[in-house]
Structure formats: C-alpha cells, structure tokens
Design goal:
CATH topology of the largest domain in chain A: Dihydrodipicolinate Reductase, domain 2
Largest interface: A-B, 55 and 55 residues
CATH architecture of the largest domain in chain A: 2-Layer Sandwich
Largest sheet of chain A: 11 strands, mixed
Strand content of chain A: 25-35%
Radius of gyration of chain A: 24 Å
Helix content of chain A: 25-40%
Mean pLDDT of chain A: 95
Number of helices of chain A: 14
Oligomer: homodimer
Chain lengths: ~425, ~425
C-alpha cells in the first residue's frame, strides 16, 4: 500500500511532538490507516538545536520550498503560527497539490475563508483540529459528530493562559500580576502575554468555532473583545461570595435573528460546569437543537496534546487520500435565520457592578436613581467592609439590561463626586 | 450523484427521530455528503400507530426481510434493541452486503466481536455512535479524535436513569423509592427499571468503551457490577457533608499490567467535574497519554439526541460508500501492556463505610481493632446524631484498602453483637 508522505513546516514544540508520536505509534497507526505515514521532510529556520526526539539529519532543511515543491509529498503540516509567511506557504502548497494540516488559529481566523476557497478550487483538504482546544476533538465533534444539528450558542473557555491566571487568583487569593508572573515562570504564559490576556487569541478561536456552528466567517473587528487584565482580586472574591466564578468566555450566540460574538470576562454560577474549569484547561459548552447541551473539556495546550490533534488529522487525511476524497470546508451551510450580527451596544445581560463610593448618606439613593432613569433594576446590593479608606466598595447585581443603557448609566454615576475611580462592570451569563 | 438508500428496522422513538431529521435537514445533509440519503423502507411490528412524523405509508412494512434483502438498500439502521432478533437481523443484513448502523449497546456488548468479524469478512462497516451517551460524540472521539492515544482510564456516568435518581435524592432530599417513582412518572425510567438501576446497562456501555480504549472485549461476567438500589438518602447526605457526591460510575482502568472493569456507586469529590453531572446527563471522563484528561458531557438519552448520533453515523457511512471504503472495527490494537483482568477482590480503593452501632462505650475500639487486624487504616470517623434509636450511624472514611481485606473485615465487624444490620461500604475515587 502506498505510503502517505508528509512534510512539516515548523519543528518546534508541537512539530517535534508530532514526529515523536508518528515514530512511537507507527505500527498502530499503520494498522488503522492501512498505509504508513512517512515523514519526508521537515523545514525550520533552526535545524541545529536539539529537540526531544532524534531524527535523521537528512530530513531537515532550512528551505521551506523543499517541502512545498516536493512532488512526492501528499500533506504539508504547517506549525509555525502567525499570518505571514504561514499564509503564503499554505497557498503555495495548495497550488502544488498538497493537502494541509494546520494548528494556526490566527491564520484561519483572519484568512480561513480565502484558504478554504483555494483548497476547494484545487480539490485539496485543510484540517485544523489543533487550532482550538489542543487535543480536545472539538472541531471533529462540531463538523462530524454534530453534523445534523443547528446551534443556539457556544460558550468557550479557550485560552489556557487566561484561565490559569483567573483560577490561580481565585484559588490562591493572589493578584493578577502575581498570577501572571507565576504563569510565565511555569511556561503557561508567553513573555509577552498580550494576545492571550487581551482576549485576541480567544477571539481567533471563536471565529473558527462560530464558522463551524453558524456557517459564517465573522471578522475580528465584528467581535467585541475585552481581556482579563482589569479583573481584580477583590472582584473575584466578591463574585465568589455571591456564588460565581469569573472566567474569560468566548461566546457566539443566536438571539432571535441576530448573532452575538463576544469575548469578555464573565460571572458564571458555581453550579455550572464551566465554573469548575481550572488552570490551563479549556472547555467548550455547546447548545445544539438535537443533541442538546454538550461540554467538551481537556487541556488547552501542551506539546503532546496539540500533536495528538495533528496526528488525528493526519489519520483522517491519509484515509481521504487513499480513497481519493477531499473534504470541503465550504459545505457548512450558513444559518439562514441569522440576518445580521448584533452590536455589543444592543446586547442584553445581567451585570456585576462595583463602585468605589464615599461612605456617606444618600450615595446609594443617587446611584439607584440614575440606574432607574435608564430603566435598570437592581437585583442585589452589598456595601462591603466599612474601613477608614476614602472609598468603600458597593457591589451590585443588576437584572437584564441593555449594554448601551448600562454604559450610559455608569458614565453618569462615575461623574458623581461621591464616586471614586475604577468602577467595574462584568457581564453575567446563565449559560 | 448516486443516492444512498437506507432501511430502518424499528420505527419507535429513535427511529421516528431519525426520519424527522433526515427530512428536515435534507438539503444541508446533501450538501455535506454530496449525495442524498433516501429512506427506502421502514420495518416495524407496529405499522399502524401514529408517529410524530408523517411518512409515505408505502415505506412501511411488517416484514423485516423487505429491508434486509432489498438489493438497493446500502445501509440498514437497527433500532429495535435487545439481543434477539436484532443479532440475526444484523448478521443477515451483513451477509446481504449491507452496512450497519445500530444503537444497540446490549447487542454490541455481548456479541460485538462476532458481529465486527462478520462485517470485516464482508468488507462492510458497523457504526454505533448512539450506543453510548446518545448525542455525545464519544465513540467518534475515542476512535478518531484520540486515535493516536493510549488510555489509562475511563470513568463514565453512562446511565441517565441512575444518575437522575441519585441526583434527585441529593438535590431534593428524597428517598430512592420516591426518586424512582418520579423518574418513571417523567419517562426517565422504564416501568421495569432493573437493567438501569442494577448497573447492567452501564456495564454494556463500559464493554464498548473499554474495547475502544484498550482493544479488548471484556465479557459481562468479567465486570464487577453493583447497582444503586441500596444507596440510601442518609448515605448521600453524609457523603455530602464530607464533600462528596455519589454517582454510579462505569470504570475501566489500567493498573500496572492489569485492567480493572467495574460498575458501582462511587463517592466523587465535589470539586471534580463528574460530581456536577446532574439529572439525565451523561459524562465520560477519559485519561489519555497524549491529549491528557478529557471530559465529554451531554444528555444521555432522548429521541433527537440519539437520532443525532445515528444521522452522524449515516453521514460518515455515506461518505465511505461513495469512496468505496469500509471502516473496520477490528483494527483497534489491544494494549499489549495489559496481561489480565484484575478481579474485584484484588482492587484497591478508599471507602466510605457506615455501620449502625449500639451507642455504648467500646464500640469504636472494637471496630477499629478489627480494621487494624486487616491492615486497614481509618482516615476519618464521625458518629452521627445521637438519637434514642436502637443504633446510631458511625461513618468512616478509610484509606486505600484491598477489597478482599475490606470485605473480610466488614463481615467480622457485622458479626459483633453491638453492630446492627445494613452496614454499607461505597468505593471512593479521586478520578
């Protein structure tokens, strides 16, 4: 039986994990596929550093074209990340008749539609299981396992770094800065963690998930994105007292004939499974019309976890190749009941709000008066510890309010001279 | 493009769900598969009763052979359940060149190996996503998504009825009998709920999961099976006070070079996700060597949920048929590091134990003396409410002990004249 020849672009952490798995599981993979997966070439800028897997030096090259142009290579596995030059490499590989496996969420989020169209044009497949949730088979589950379903919403904890920081703060009572330092020390956060903690990585993954669920590619600009850097330890603790955990959620949700796509810190009731997702773990909560409410949970990062997903793509692709099939990514039918994206201003939610107020009579009356003016009603209010500080925290839960009204009310309240700086409003989800 | 013709055996709850989905999602399924799925024939003993889907009367037949022998039918979907005559129908269909989709866990558990061999012999596929966890794509995830992984263990809440009863008891402080009555009233339990509450249904599903994870078909006799009918409300409440929920778990776990397969009520720490799985929901917690610890959660039953799984199998099978592929169920390599099954006597666990003891001096000394004799050490002990009852409950958590030793110690303790009837021992899992 014909070997399936593959070429790797990127021989870093995940790339060497893939090589390790293909070597160690050679026999069992071969028996499952019916053909051998053969690593023909590995391109990387750095071919000198030692990896944790030994490899024939002859396979390594600094010239990516030796992978892309090799007529014997069937599959190109792109693991360098980022938009450029990954995009150009993939396009050239497709044009040279290669199938593609990629873990590149940023690229798929920003150029997926274009790449999928080029692939379909050439009758080649693009597989991308490792792009969301590492080894959790969420892409396969949405595309294949739930193929008959329509979706109502998807709520994802899809950034391990942010979740690690928030759950460390909650479990160990440490500040954001301390938790971030710790995450960096353990290798759970990059030196420059901006993409993760600002929510952009979550937004990239949300674009992919929303495409699979609703059949439309939203652009990054269409997504409301708020990261976790302004979440304070006190808010985490106040939320806890009220029975909630704060998580960074990536949300795509159908509301009547509109689709909401947003990434932001969210209060989740402790009884909900998503509130128990800790440390580097990811979880995707899917609401579907036939299979109901589902949760997919697992480590959101890690060399072997991501490599496990890449190898599962390889096995699928090898079977496609043997059968002469190609799998289109463009046959996901757009949910025709969605007519437009809902702007964040128009979304509704319950909110957790914290004001820092002077401890004097009449403050609460002023605040609640302004909220009432905007039609916002209060579900609960607590004035926290009465210290000799200049301002004391007032914590409120408010009933369902429109974002636009809430923002206007907050702006007005913040201008009161009895209110200090740093008012906080965090959305709540029943999920 | 050639139509894929299917025949249904069984037009009950799930069967009519499948028909409904195939009709309502016709266009989107066709665009995904590239061919139309056409229902050619539906066999059922009862072709007179009204279903919640309208259907051309001409499709219905009482004669199952009209499905099995129809040369134009590519796929036979078996949804009647039970061993006989489902087994004979499937074998005859395979011999007549049909591919099979089934939701029949009892049949697969007891005769899976035989059926898979016949299918391979004929180059036909058997798909069975709906057999475990209804619409949760757990079969696909284990077979395909985690294809490169070796497994350490699988812990499943796989029987919705049992989980409904246990979680009702825990949430609403009701007795087993009350919870069962309620489950029956809501249609969540059969009139004769024996298979569910005695753990046999869970054991059937465990056989399927263990095969996918470890490559061996264990027989029902090899599985230690204990149901939930002896779980009392007091034990649920005592467990809760100690920070645990009681769940019926189906467990397959590698311990050194042995495999443990068992179904029994289990104390699970409240911080673990499995403890939060309530009502009719199922969840499967998988420990794998590459993708790590994963959880798959969703409704464990329901017409459309199970039908969603059947239709996903249909889509996969339709693609196989178009490509001329068949998918073997025999290419799962047995984990060669497992040399035998571990007998329940030899398994180790922490335990929750409750004795009913006379409230007099020296009782605890006697109990702990006997435990010590068997090398069993106590982690915690609480004597519960001191009422005027003849016996008071003594609740203990004991450290890791061998089942055989624990049973011997319990037998000896039960013979003490200070100890009443109904001592209870429930395993604990850290998971």
């Amino acid at each position: 039986m014909k070997k399936i020849n593959i070429g790797l672009i990127g021989f870093g952490n995940v790339g060497s994990g893939v090589v390790k798995i293909l070597r160690e599981r050679k026999a069992s993979l071969k028996s499952k596929i019916g053909s051998e997966i053969n690593i023909k070439k590995i391109a990387d800028k750095d071919i000198a550093s030692k990896r944790n897997v030994s490899i024939d030096k002859g396979l390594l090259t600094k010239d990516v074209r030796e992978v892309i142009l090799d007529p014997h290579i069937d599959v190109v596995v792109e693991l360098i990340g980022g938009i450029h030059p990954a995009k150009e490499f993939i396009i050239e590989a497709l044009k040279n008749g290669k199938n593609i496996i990629t873990a590149n969420k940023a690229l798929l989020a920003e150029c997926g539609k274009e790449l999928f169209a080029i692939a379909d044009d050439r009758g080649k497949s693009i597989y991308f299981e490792a792009s969301v949730g590492a080894g959790i088979p969420i892409i396969k589950s949405l595309r294949e396992g739930l193929v008959a379903n329509k979706f109502h919403s998807i709520f994802g904890i899809v950034n391990g770094t942010s979740n690690y920081i928030l759950s460390e703060m909650s479990r160990n009572n440490c500040t954001f800065a301390e938790a971030l330092r710790q995450a960096q020390a353990k290798g759970f956060a990059e030196k420059d963690p901006a993409l993760d903690i600002a929510g952009v990585d979550s937004a990239h993954k949300l674009i992919i998930l929303a495409y699979l669920c609703f059949g439309r590619f939203v652009s990054l600009d269409d997504i409301f994105v708020e990261g976790i850097s302004r979440i304070s330890l006190s808010d985490i603790n106040y939320a806890k007292e009220l029975g909630f955990e704060i998580k960074l959620l990536a949300i795509a949700q159908k509301e009547k004939d509109e689709l909401e796509v947003r990434v932001h810190p969210t209060l989740i009731p402790k009884k909900h499974l998503l509130s128990s997702v800790e440390s580097m773990f990811n979880a995707i909560y899917v609401s579907s019309d036939l299979a109901g409410e589902l949760l997919f949970y697992g480590p959101g990062a890690g060399q072997l976890s991501a490599a496990s997903a890449v190898v599962s793509d390889l096995v699928d692709l090898a079977q496609d190749i043997r059968a002469g099939l190609f799998r289109s990514n463009l046959n996901i039918i757009a949910d025709s009941s969605i007519v437009k994206l809902r702007k964040i201003d128009e979304t509704h939610s319950r909110y957790y709000i914290r004001f820092m107020a002077k401890d004097q009579p009449g403050v609460l009356a002023k605040i609640s008066g302004i909220l009432a003016k905007f039609g916002i009603s209060i579900a609960s209010v607590t004035q926290k510890e009465r210290k000799k500080a200049k301002h004391v925290p007032i914590v409120m839960i408010i009933h369902d309010a429109r974002e636009k009204d809430l923002r206007a009310a907050l702006a007005m309240i913040t201008r009161l001279n009895v209110i200090g700086e740093n008012s906080v409003a965090i959305r709540m989800e029943e999920v």
